[in-house]
Input
Amino acid sequence: MTATVDMRGVITFTDLIFTNLSDPTDNGFISVSANLVADWISGGPTNERMIVQAKINGGLNEFSDSFTTPGVRNVLTSNATVQLNTPVTFGYIGDFRLRDSVSGAENGSASLGLADVGVFNLPTGYTLNSVDAGIVNNNLAAIPAPGMLTLLAVALFGMRWRRSRSV
Output
């Protein structure tokens, strides 16, 4: 008996704006490719596979790659032509099958995401911004963890309360 874990997640962003830094009104076209990072950790003897697919502008670019060994990989999509100053759609899918062929247990973990720096390969003098994807000047922006300010406020209140009781 073999257990199989199927993980398939579709991530789509619809507001990518590519811009010519020297002429922000330029509405021409450029060729781009995306940088993804796949991280796959195996939990033991396995019969596993990982498939990565990405689309730019709903099919103008379709890329697929398959891996059969765990590890961290940079995945570069093929090139696609996009129009400047026009919202571009970008989506990617990670399809992971993790199973231990010896014990049948579910094992391992996998993730797929955008590269932190240089999210897209762009010609010199161009940049990319996206509110949905958290991309500023073609790099992922540092986004605070949800609820972090609330946790900080509770901790500070607790310390103050404890201090006032001990006085």
